[in-house]
Predict the structure of AAA domain-containing protein.
Amino acid sequence: MSTMSMNALPSPAAVYAAYASLSSSVMLLRTTFHQIVPRQVQEYVLSLISRFFKNRIPNKENSVLTLMVEKSDEYSYSNYLFQSFQIYMSAKASSTTNRLKINKLSQKSEKLTAKLAQEETISEVYQGVEITWAYLNQHEKEKSDRNKQYWYELRFEKIHKDLVMNSYIPFVLEEAKNMQYASKDIKLHTYGSGSWSSFNLEHSSTFETLAMEPSEKKALMDDLDLFLKRREYFKRVGRAWKRGYLLYGPPGTGKSSLVAAIANYLKFDIYDLQLMNVGSDDVFRKLLQGIANRSILVIEDIDCSVDLPDRTTQAKKPKSKSLKFSLSGLLNFIDGLWSSCGDERIIIFTTNHKDRLDPALLRPGRMDMHIHMSYLTINGFKTLASTYLDIKHEHWRFKEIEELLGIVEVTPAEVAEELMRICDADVCLGALVSFLKEKKKRTGVETKDGEDATWGIKLIPEANEIDSDSV
Ligand SMILES: Nc1ncnc2c1ncn2[C@@H]1O[C@H](COP(=O)(O)OP(=O)(O)OP(=O)(O)O)[C@@H](O)[C@H]1O
C-alpha cells in the first residue's frame, strides 16, 4: 500500500469529530422544530414525508389483489366459475403441488379426482404475471355448519387486474371446458318406452383401428375438426350448427365402428334411435329435445327400420299401425327446425341400401358427406393386421392377400374374425389366405362386380342436387 493512499484516508479522530458535530446539529434542528413549529404543522409535515416514501417503497400487501371465487352464492346456487376452477386446478395440482386431496366418487368409477388440499397454494405464470391459487374453506370451529363455504383465491399484483379478468379467467374457463370433455365418459343413449336410457360406451373403435383408406380417414377427421371450429360461422350465416353424415355399405364393413370412432374422437355422446320406436312427429320432437349438446344422433338402417310415409304421395304405409311418424318430420329436424334446442349436433344415418332412400334425404344441405363403407382393400387390411397381429410394416404374405382382395368381396368384419383365431402371425395369415381362396371358390367370383371397391367419401356441394348413383 503506498504512503499516498494512507495520507488520503481521514483519521478515526477526524471521523468521530465530524459525526459528533452532525448529530449535535440534528439534535439542535429537532429541538428547534419541536419548539418553534406548531404541533399541527409538525404532524402535517411528517405525514407528507411518510406518504412520499410510502409511494416509492413497494408495499406487498397493498399492491396485491385477491379474487375470491365461492362454490355457491348466498342463495346456494352453484357457481359455474368455481366448478371450472375445480377442474382446472385438479389438472394443475396433480403435476405441481406437494399435498393433494384425492377422491373416488363411486366404486365403478375408474378415475381418481384430485384437488388442492386446504390452504395449499400453487403458482403459475400467465403472460409474465405470477398468479397464486389457494383452496380454502371456513375455519375449523365452524365445521358443524352444514352450509360450509368453500372458495378459491387468486392472488396477483393489482396492476394486472385487467389481464387476469379479461384474459386469464376466460383462458382458464376454456381450458377447463376442454379438460372436462377430454376426461368425460362417453355415453350411449338408447330410446325406448318413452325415454332415453344411458350406458357407458364400451366400443373401443378409434380412427387408428378403423380399416379405412388413410386419405379418406383424414378427410373425415379434417371435416370433424373444421365443424368444431365453426361455431361463429354457423351463427353468422344463420344455420344450425350441425353436420350430417350418411354411411352406406354392406353389413360388416364398419358403419357402427365408424360411429364409435367419431364419438371417441370428439368425445360426444351417442343417441341411438330406432325409428320404429318413434310413435309420431310429436314424440320425435320431444325425444330430440332430450338430446344434449355435443352429441351424435344415429339413425341406423334408415332404409329398412321403417317405411316412412312419403311426403308427397303418402304411398308407403308405415309398418306399425300406430306409427304416425313422417319423413317430413325427420327432414324438418335435419333442416334445423329444432336447432334452437341445442348446438354441436352430428346426425348420422346408416344404410345398407343407399339406392332405396328417398331422394329428399340425399339433398344437399341435409347430409353433408356421404361415406361409402366398402369391402376390404389392402390398406384397410394392413390396419387390421396392425391391430390384431401387431404387424406394423410389411409381411411376405401381403402381396398374395392383396391379389385375393382384388377379386374376392370380403368384409372387414369377416377378416377381423379370421385374424382373431390364431396368435402366431405367419400361421394366421396362412389361414387367412386359405379362407380367401375358399371364399373365391365358393362364390365363383373372378372379378368384382360393377360397384366401386374403394372407400369413398364424397363431400356434397351445397348448391347442387345430387344423383345418389354418382356417389
Ligand atoms: N372398417 C372396419 N375397421 C375395423 N374393424 C371393423 C371394420 N368393419 C367391421 N369391423 C369389425 O367387425 C365388427 C362389426 O362391424 P360393424 O358393426 O361396425 O359393421 P356395420 O357395417 O355397422 O354392420 P351392420 O350393417 O351389420 O350394422 C366390428 O365390431 C369390428 O370388430
Remarks:
- The first strand starts at residue 64 and ends at 70.
- Residues 1-6, 310-322, 446-456, 458-471 have pLDDT under 50 and may be disordered.
- The CA atoms of residues 249 and 373 lie 5 Å apart.
- Residues 209-212, 251-257, 352, 373, 412-413, 416 surround adenosine-5'-triphosphate (CB under 6 Å).
